[in-house]
Amino acid sequence: MKKNLIALVLLFAMSFGLKAQSITTDEEWGKLIGFLSAEQWDGANSLSLQFLKRIPDANKDGNEAAVLRYMYIYSEAGLMNEQKVTKAEAQKKVSAHVGHRVVLASHPITSKEGFNSIQLVNDKTDTLMVSAANRKATQIFSFEYILPKKAFPLDEFKSNEGKVYEVIGRIKSINVEGNMFPRFKIFIDEAEISPREQ
Questions:
Q1: pTM confidence score
Q2: Quick check: helix, strand or coil at residue 109?
Q3: Angle subtended at Cα 72 by Cα 16 and Cα 47, rounded to the nearest 5 degrees
Q4: Span of the secretion signal (predicted)?
């Protein structure tokens, strides 16, 4: 099941009530979502970084920053795929986000391999994985390894297949890998995984 990643991120962001205390106006937020939905990485990258810089230091790991951080990294991967930035440039730009919280796009749980879904690694739940790609799954943006803070029971994982889950955690590491198809390899620890509210 293919999902619009950015719409899911937006829904998750709104579930936190970000607009109540947001550093962006509705018009600015709408413009950023428009760039992401249209996969216009230049605009999305520039705006998400601009908004991240507005966030006070005291809130740099707040929910809004965590959502914007993922949007920034995601759009940077898009630029790298389009060869608008080199692997070295992309690595340098995203390395400052290591150690900070991030909200991933919401994804369905699945026991099958595929794009834009939360999958098991080695048939265990101590590490989960998302292969994040563009809407058509013609470009791979990142392999996101999720290390849950609290054990996710295997039977619960299997019984919730197809349901959409939210992931929020801390970027433990982020590196560029791949030559023909460059992408980020991200480890997210202290992760909290919960079903998305409808």
A1: 0.89
A2: strand
A3: 90
A4: 1-20
Q: For residue 189, which phi and psi values (nearest 5 degrees)?
A: -105, 180
Distances 89 to 84, 92, 175, 180 between C-alpha atoms, Å: 10, 5, 12, 16
Q: Which residues contact 1 (CB under 8 A, 6 or more apart)?
A: 108, 117, 162
122 — alpha (psi -120 to 50), left (phi > 0) or beta? Answer: left
Q: 118, 167 in Cβ contact below 8 A? A: yes
CA torsion sign for 169, 120, 164, 40 is positive
CA dihedral 99, 100, 101, 103 (to 10 degrees): -100
Here the tokens at position 27 are 């018009």
